[in-house]
Amino acid sequence: MDTMRDRFAPVVSRILDEDPRVAVVLAEIGLVPFLEAQRRHPDRVINVGIREQLLVGAGAGLALAGMRPVLHTFASFLVERPFEQVKLDFGHQGLGGVLVSAGASYDVSGGGFTHMAPGDVALLDTLDGWSVQVPGHPDEAEVLLRQAIGAGDERVYVRLSVQANREALPVDGQHLLTVREGRRGVVVAVGPLLDQVLAATEGLDVSVLYATTVRPFDAAGLRRAVGASAADVVLVEPYLAGTSTGAANDALADVPHRVLGLGVGRRELRRYGSVDEHVAAHGLDAASLRERISGFLDVGVPGVPA
């Protein structure tokens, strides 16, 4: 199966052919797949070199000129390094654009901590007006990319990852999807962690919801899944643990509830290892998730250890 990032350049190149308002801004990373599109549209595929602050500033300048800019590099260089430019050039000026990251939390683990960005969504959460899309499959990435680029002048962050679920689901860029129904709690799986969550909750009497759109958070969808009684909710996110616990708490403010946020821990792992090793180290593999989810919800399969 190709990766989400494999889909990115072909999809956006087709959009460049279709929509003269769209422009792509790169900072050296990801340039090669766009060389043919750059030949066709030399004024709308722009490489600023390894200058991430300029990447964001140039994108905002294109937005000021009425264009729909698409900015791309690794998440640590797109959100964290030029955060002031994201905050001021887009947010303070009220401009729209699409930030598309690669690398996720630790996809480029061999690059060291400079190439890891588990805090990107939490950081954007400090700003107003950003939608955040976290696809879990290349087909979903294609759908969400097209929606993001075609979303008028909104500010959208699309987080791509090499981690992916086996099958795509019919995501709509707005709502939580109910994948499994149960009575003893609700588990929300975000993006590429759905397969791990489904394996972890196999046989447990819990509902599993799937989220690819995490901002704005589908509060109404969570409320419907929980119902009117007391609720226990577990959020499993592929970035900083607890990033969406506040949103879930707000959604359930008038219902007695408990929320557990699982995700990437704050402790820096200095033995960088592989993606799978990072998944296990942060307790996001199926076996670890099963233990943590069943312990919090106090559920299990009769005769089977939790």
Automatic annotation (TrEMBL):
This is Transketolase. Residues 2-167 form the Transketolase-like pyrimidine-binding domain. It comes from the Bacteria. InterPro entries: PDH/Transketolase (IPR051157), THDP-binding (IPR029061), Transketo_C/PFOR_II (IPR009014), Transketolase-like_Pyr-bd (IPR005475). It holds the Pfam family Transket_pyr. Signal peptide: none annotated. PANTHER family: PYRUVATE DEHYDROGENASE E1 COMPONENT (PTHR43825), TRANSKETOLASE-LIKE PYRIMIDINE-BINDING DOMAIN-CONTAINING PROTEIN (PTHR43825:SF1). The lineage of its organism: Bacteria, Bacillati, Actinomycetota, Actinomycetes, Kitasatosporales.
